[in-house]
Structure prediction request, 894 residues.
Amino acid sequence: MTNSIDDLEKADCILVIGSNTTEGHPIIGLRIKRAVMKNGCRLIVAEPRHIRLCYYAGQWIRQKPGTDVALLNGMMNVILSEGLADEDFIRERTEGFEEFRKTVEQYPPERAAEICGVEAEEIRRAARTFASAESAAIVYAMGITQHTTGVDNVLSLANLAMLTGNLGKEGAGVNPLRGQNNVQGACDMGGLPNVFTGYQPVSDPKVREKFEAAWGVDYLPGNPGLTLTEMTDAAHRGDVKVLYIMGENPVISDPDIRHLKEALERVEFLVVQDIFLTETAAYADVVLPSASFAEKEGTFTNTDRRVQRVRKAVEPPGEAREDSWIIAQVAARLGYDMGYISAEKVMEEIASLTPSYGGISYQRLEKEGELRWPCPDAEHPGTPILHVGKFTRGKGLFSAVEYKPPAEEPDEEYPFILTTGRLLAHYHTGSMTRRVEPLNELVPRNRVWINPADAERLGVADGDEVGLQSRRGAIKLEAKVTRKVSEGVVFVPFHFGESPANALTNSALDPVAKIPELKVAAVRVLAGEDAKGVTYDMA
Amino acid sequence: MEQVRLTIDGKEVVTTSDRTILEAAREAGVRVPSLCYEERMDPYGACRICLVEVEGARGLLPACYTKVTDGMVVRTATEDLARIRRTILELILSDHPKDCMTCESAGDCELQDLAYEYGVKETSYKGEEHHYEVLADNPLIERDYDKCILCGRCIRICREVQGVGVYDFVNRGFESVPGIPYGKPMTESPCEFCGQCVSTCPTGAIISIPSKGKGRSWQVEKVRTTCPYCGCGCQLDLHVRDGEIIEVSSPVMVGPGEGNLCVKGRYGYGFVHHPDRLTQPLVRKGGKGGELVPATWEEALGAVAGHIRKAMDEGGPDSVAFLASARCTNEENYLMQKLARAVVGTNNVDHCARL
Prediction:
């Protein structure tokens, strides 16, 4: 997030797009609701499904899945043609405006509306509300990013924020909500194939030199490695021979499960380090039992870049050990001594090598509770709002972004758009929440949401068992007949191993970010007798 | 907002004009009793326990509701006030069970604390008492209206903070309770099971079912940590007794959640002690089709290192790939990429940021 969670309550307008905030990020959802209820903030929700935030919104735009660029270009077209842009901000703080303007001019609201399946007037209204607000914040999540146009979608949101001068100030910003407790931290720590900690590129020889010296090695590779999805393909081909997975369950979370399972079967040696024998661990050649969050010391970095402590409350069960101990043991057996491993000492090493974490220490966290990076030195108070006065790269760069349709669109054979997401009571691949009895009692099974008109046409009643089939696979689950999804769209949560949404999803990737298009796939619904033969083989 | 100077119990206090007497007093270290007040909500002024004397004011004023003014002289602990507070407590206790021995909230009950402080043992107002049925119509939240003091905190936190409004006062006069419309079970209401009502209830009227009978507040050690679920980063207090997490709460006005949690943060801790937890390393015997069998750490780690070494020798460092984890700590992720880059010599390290 460019801004902080607390900051949302200062916004005069919030655009929530591609985020079911009250279920995916409930506490941020609560802040948005309060902004509306207490401070009169105007909320615009742009979301194909009817989500709880729609009850609080002044306007709900129900765009077709995968049409966000058209919607945003349409809004920006209105902002430009009605003279609502922040011209001072554009002149003083940005570049690339002219080319951007030419592209946006190609998207009058009528054209955008047709692509998105909404009325032109809705786009005009949203554009006016957003652009006329004193400060307007954008909040988004995986509904924006998990598309083959994920990067285009994000660039369009950045365009909108810059066009209206909504960066570098309170109550504004471009605010991606990170879906996991420490996905921000895992990125910050260099858990990415192209960067060391703090996004220092592996391709930069100076950066490599610094890390070589600190780590006491002669050579660090400068060529970026493989992304997760590329690793799967490489394992499939036999180019990756050993795959070492720590605390992830791709068999449920990744697209096109069948392809992934084949890769896991083919890879010569698979190591899985986890707290449960997950669907992924079941494929492993060695399973290493690790400690849960309650059994270790450390830090997590949340979605607004806040570094906070994790503290040990109980002992790990049996012989389970902390991940840090396990990693150091493997390193030692490969001839590298990581030295004495304590979380506090590791953070000292991180701070010494990472400019944005330079001022973060356990001593300060004990005292101050939280620190937001960039926090370059011990005196620095941390940074709640990014890009104040100046962007990290200097000038903010407008991008000319054209609408591109999703990789797979519905056709006669597969007439429905499948979109996936989370439920409030469960979490990600369900390995934790589905083992929490009361949560599982609240939501015991998976259901596919289907519009009443579609259900009637197919002869499906609420509670019926139906099959869903895509070009990649099939699952069987219960139908939930609801107007919360529009005609032609079905929604399946991805928490459930017995009927995994990702058996159906498309592994087509965004060309830049390599993020798969989990939010749009073409499926067909099998009802009655046709559903009977559908099975999902869990093995 | 301007600076104001006032006197509270003879103490000079400097604060700002947006503060109430209660807030100013607490900031100055003067404890004013309260029941219906909680920091997460707007003041309500219902319980009258926080009444204070203000020089020149007609009658007593509720500290939670009255804004400070310059030159104000406040007294919070006179004998008159103590008598009034005792009377209020006696009235509340006239229709409240005296079952603190078995009450889930004993030791963590604002009513119990005040009765103790003001020495209220018996009530002089004998009269009718309620005997409601305990409502446990869902797996998480239990309601016992016998213990309700009608402070309205559950109603207000659900409406003002959670923005849902499951509860409201139903029935009138002596029969009033914070109910759910039409007496429906919670599972049929819009309830999100965040447990904010549990967290604010000053007595044992609304409690968490999974924690029932597991331990008293003075028997647990509270460990402050960060929630392991989504990216909000809410602060948790894990309540630990005999090596087991028996309850989770969140410190009020601390961290991104300010003391509020969702159903996963508050109730999603049971996996930690689940019997499915892996307790020893497993190694597959007899090739790909074989079984995963328990092994020693020595054996498992040796196999991992051996295969990594073999792949490095035969196919080069890039034939090994690592997935770090969005669920693990910063320190562990740092070490994992260090293992990949410094020890094995590959940049093949990623995690599920894209999923």
User: Anything to note?
Assistant: The CA atoms of residues 251 and 376 of chain A lie 39 Å apart.
